[in-house]
UniProtKB/TrEMBL annotation:
<dbReference type="InterPro" id="IPR047057">
    <property type="entry name" value="MerR_fam"/>
</dbReference>
<keyword id="KW-0238">DNA-binding</keyword>
<dbReference type="InterPro" id="IPR029442">
    <property type="entry name" value="GyrI-like"/>
</dbReference>
<dbReference type="InterPro" id="IPR000551">
    <property type="entry name" value="MerR-type_HTH_dom"/>
</dbReference>
<dbReference type="Pfam" id="PF06445">
    <property type="entry name" value="GyrI-like"/>
</dbReference>
<dbReference type="InterPro" id="IPR010499">
    <property type="entry name" value="AraC_E-bd"/>
</dbReference>
<dbReference type="Pfam" id="PF13411">
    <property type="entry name" value="MerR_1"/>
</dbReference>
<dbReference type="InterPro" id="IPR011256">
    <property type="entry name" value="Reg_factor_effector_dom_sf"/>
</dbReference>
<dbReference type="InterPro" id="IPR009061">
    <property type="entry name" value="DNA-bd_dom_put_sf"/>
</dbReference>
<keyword id="KW-0805">Transcription regulation</keyword>
<keyword id="KW-0678">Repressor</keyword>
<keyword id="KW-0804">Transcription</keyword>
<protein>
    <submittedName>
        <fullName>MerR family transcriptional regulator</fullName>
    </submittedName>
</protein>
<feature type="domain" description="HTH merR-type">
    <location>
        <begin position="4"/>
        <end position="73"/>
    </location>
</feature>
Length: 270
């Protein structure tokens, strides 16, 4: 007589819940050898072998419908087709993992470079090219709202890289009026630099200041820039950008935050 196993024994043997086993039964994938009057389900080796096949194919993203079809119509030819499919999925996953490894290595290099920056708290004048980006305008009251708005912009990017580098390429937009009145935390929107972006950040001359530390000291850096611009007869020429190079997504230590302020200025050579 063929040995029968209770559903609980199969559950422990394959480390799979009884609920999933019952679901497979409902879908016609794994029918018990016997269901007794008390409702207990018993399986034999005739059914159990299917679990390894089901689990392997599910891990590769094959639907239950396709798995059921394969089990019912399996042949050497079908098995060869299935192997080719599995190899294709594995190759795709390997490519995805290699791309992720590349992104993480780039992120590691970026964090090391930004963390060791020797230009903190120094005002410099730079010339920047036009940069494609996504913009989203809305009244923003807190840093948490900025983060949420940036997430919305990240979802609009066409590349997975956006998920890993969004905050280092984006930040908040401060209007000219708010800047002039000293309302440095009254933002009017967010932006995310991305090659697929529909919007643009204007090319030209910018004042740039990179600082390390909590956002509470933001006003000190803005006042420092204002004094510099006044002393050098520089005029603002557009929206102010705050780029969050290192923020809550990389550290819980506010002293490790790194932010860049970019202010477009009129070209005095015009």
């Amino acid at each position: 007589m063929m040995k029968l196993y209770k559903i609980g024994e199969i559950s422990k043997l394959y480390n799979i819940s009884t609920d999933i086993l019952r679901y497979y039964e409902k879908e016609g994938l794994l029918m018990p050898q016997e269901i007794r009057e008390n409702g207990y389900r018993y399986y034999s080796a005739k059914q159990i072998w299917k679990l390894s096949t089901i689990r392997g194919l599910r891990n590769l993203g094959v639907s239950l419908r396709e798995i059921k079809k394969y089990i019912e119509e399996r042949s050497v030819g079908k098995s060869l087709e299935l192997i080719d499919f599995q190899l294709g999925v594995i190759e795709e996953k390997l490519c995805e993992l290699l791309e992720l490894k590349k992104q993480l290595n780039s992120k590691k290099k970026y964090l090391n470079e930004v963390g060791d920056n020797d230009k903190y708290n120094k005002i410099v004048e730079v010339t920047l090219p036009e940069r494609r980006c996504y913009k989203r305008y809305s009244d923003i009251g807190t840093g948490w709202e900025i983060d949420l708005e940036l997430k919305k912009l990240t979802n609009r990017t066409n590349t997975d890289e956006g998920q890993n580098f969004a905050r280092s390429r984006g930040g908040a937009i401060l209007g000219i009026d708010e800047y002039k009145s000293g309302e440095y935390t009254k933002y009017r929107g967010t932006f995310l630099m991305d090659d697929s972006g529909e919007d643009r950040l204007k090319k030209g001359r910018y004042i740039s200041l990179i600082f390390k530390g909590p956002y509470e000291g933001m006003n000190i850096h803005y006042e420092k820039i204002k004094k510099y611009m006044g002393k050098n007869n520089l005029e603002i020429d557009g929206e102010i950008l705050e780029i969050y190079m290192i923020d809550i997504h990389e550290t819980d230590e506010e002293d490790e935050f790194v932010t860049e302020i970019q202010i477009p200025i009129k070209d005095n050579t015009d």
